[in-house]
Design goal:
The chain is α+β, with helices and mostly antiparallel strands and 201 residues long. 25% of the residues lie in helices and 20% in strands. The protein is built from 6 helices and 10 strands; from the N terminus they run E-H-H-E-E-E-H-H-H-E-E-E-E-E-H-E.
Length: 201
């Protein structure tokens, strides 16, 4: 069985991700969106998540019977990560901070999946992933723009809703789409701009 997920993360890094993550976790628990105790309810084998609480339907608007699923919890992440929408959705935007050109200009998801990309176009994707790993590991990560040849820090590139360079995120495994009222409340508690991305594994 495949799994869907919704990740809510900060648009950029925060100073105290563990403290802020704990604040959000307590807010979700106090509103009974998630349970108090962690359990084996997410895909990760290294950490536990939090099952939907008694009031989780207030975040989605209706009862989806989430608890019938083994993977149904909320996962909290408080370390550097390039949050993304998953392997089945290619990147569509990395905007150069110097010339504002999109690294993937003219390349559609259909092109990517139907082998319509040239070798040069595919290389634009392949050269990004090692830099993602460097950034995650707190190493210097840069990209050379194919349009203006300027080298810039990876995190200075503009992105869309499919990528975020952050150190705080919450992944809702197999939850239906979260309603706007809940997202606005969550953003208010977090206190800075957030990114929502829907993914599939």
């Amino acid at each position: 069985m495949s799994d869907n997920y919704i990740t809510i993360c900060t648009k950029e890094e925060v100073e105290n991700p563990i403290d802020l993550g704990q604040k959000i976790l307590q807010w979700l628990q106090s509103n009974e969106i998630i349970e108090q105790e962690p359990s084996d309810c997410i895909l990760s084998t290294k950490t536990k998540g939090y099952k939907p609480g008694k009031n989780h339907t207030s975040a989605i608007g209706y009862d989806e019977d989430l608890l019938r699923l083994k993977v149904c919890g909320v996962e909290v992440k408080t370390e550097r990560e390039v949050f993304n929408v998953g392997a089945f959705t290619p990147m569509t935007k990395l905007e150069c901070p110097n010339c504002r050109a999109n690294r993937f200009e003219g390349i559609t998801p259909q092109d990517f999946f139907t082998d319509n990309c040239t070798k040069e176009q595919l290389n634009l994707f392949h050269t990004v992933f090692p830099e993602f790993d460097k950034w995650t590991n707190n190493e210097k990560a840069t990209l050379v723009c194919p349009h203006c040849s300027n080298e810039s820090n990876l995190s200075d590139y503009g992105t869309d809703q499919s990528i975020a360079f952050s150190n705080l995120g919450f992944t809702f495994w197999n939850w239906p789409d979260l309603n706007e009222e809940f997202l606005m409340d969550l953003k208010s508690v977090i206190g800075i701009e957030i990114v929502r991305m829907n993914g599939h594994l």
